[in-house]
Specification:
The protein is elongated and about 70 Å long. The chain has helices spanning 100-105, 107-123, 128-144, 152-170; strands spanning 7-14, 19-26, 31-41, 47-54, 58-64, 73-82, 88-97. The strands form two sheets. Strands 4-3-6-7 form a four-stranded antiparallel β-sheet, with no helix packed on it. Strands 1-2-5 form a three-stranded antiparallel β-sheet, with no helix packed on it. The chain has two domains: 4-98, Immunoglobulin-like, CATH 2.60.40.10; 101-170. It is of the alpha+beta class. It is built from four helices and seven strands.
């Protein structure tokens, strides 16, 4: 990718070696340092897995993920630092998700199946509290097997469903 200040760069992931690779070359000689940062995305925030740098106008930076990657999400950021002050520029960012269920079944098929199960399970329930309870159990099941990622939207959905149950019980 040709970007800022005539810098050509690539950022990729090698599945066989579990390595992120950031390459850059500066044809204008304004880059003084290359930086590669790899983070694991988590519920409580991101965890730095690797930070690698080199002081050169061209370089290849690597970061091997040595932990078990199954069910996890990572992102890598390739940056360069130029000669001017406050000059760290992000060139490329990639995300890599390792979710075995998605790779085996496909997200669309799993979500369609889950919606069908929820619909059939809740259609026969006359009590709204029982219906929301079944939805919560199904939702937690989808979280446990890795179909739904645990994110801010998930927490908000669970909180809203919890408030609905509390409101219905007090009524």
């Amino acid at each position: 990718m040709k970007g800022i200040f005539d810098v050509n760069s690539t950022l990729e992931y090698d599945n066989e070696t579990q390595t992120f690779i950031f390459t850059y070359i500066d044809f204008g000689n304004v880059v003084r340092e290359g930086l590669l940062t790899v983070n694991r995305v988590g519920i409580g925030g991101d965890t730095a897995i690797c930070t690698n740098s080199t002081v050169a106008t061209a370089g290849v930076l690597t970061c091997q993920v040595s932990e078990n990657v199954s069910g996890k999400e990572y992102y890598a950021v390739g940056q360069v630092d130029t000669l001017s002050p406050n000059s760290i520029h992000t060139l490329l960012t990639i995300y890599k998700t390792f979710r075995q269920d998605h790779q085996q079944w496909g997200l669309t098929g799993l979500m369609a199946s889950a919606l069908l199960i929820f619909t059939l399970a809740t259609a026969m329930i006359s009590s709204s509290i029982a219906m929301i309870g079944v939805i919560l159990i199904g939702y937690f099941g989808l979280l446990l097997i890795g179909i739904l990622p645990f994110s801010v939207q998930t927490v908000v959905t669970l909180v809203v469903l919890g408030f609905i149950i509390i409101f219905k019980v007090r009524k």
